[in-house]
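B., you asked whether I could sanity-check this one before it goes into the benchmark set. Here's the sequence:
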Amino acid sequence: MSRSRILVPSALMLLATASMAWSAPVSTSLSQKGSCKINATASGCSNNPGPYITLDGEMKLSGISARIILTNNAKFTHETSADVKADVVLIPAGETIRIAKQPSQGGVGGNPWIYLQFTDGKGGNIGRPARLGRCVQGLNPAAVDFSIPTRVAANLASGDCSNSGGPYITLDGELKMGGLCAKLILTNNAKFTHAADEDVVIDIVLLEEGKSLTFHKQPSLGGAGGNPWIYVQFLGGSGDRLGSPILVGRCNQLD
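And here's what the prediction gave me:
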């Protein structure tokens, strides 16, 4: 009877030790590239107070990956053949976000000229206004290449740090992206050198500020025993490095 009372807590303690995991936060701000193409159609061009304009298109992102690096080199001045690396995709290259918008009816009658100005999430202009065309003559598409700020907030968890095969690693968290907006400008000034009081400007959100994408990844890692140091290196969709490797900590010393 007394023996069973001793063995049960001991068994529980061994189970807890075997399943012990360590974790630490990883956060950084990145900039990923993107492109956006917008098609526009107009109706009710001669109506008062002005036309209806429908926008549709898509946005493509260059993508972000995370490279988990296990190394026994604490300073990690450069990668060596003894290091163990695994890449996981957080946003696939070419990730597409569909856009469909029908802004409010304008207030410029008389078959106006229509321009589209892309802006960032803070209202700053991206490129120059694109002339879509005159309302009754059909509208041209507009396109822009841009860089969008992206905030990565992740948690890296590790366990089995002293195993000969190396630790297991889990990376989960979210990415929050900056916004992309546009202004539709209806004007009777064909050259549109500047906005005038009689012009109608309609603000449109194409990608809302702080749009969040969550991820949960468990890359296949092994071969770095001896309680390695863990680094995370973020990469662009084409494999380009986004900033320097981030030291997370030694496997069994993560808080």
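One thing to flag: Helices lie at 2-18. Otherwise nothing jumped out at me.
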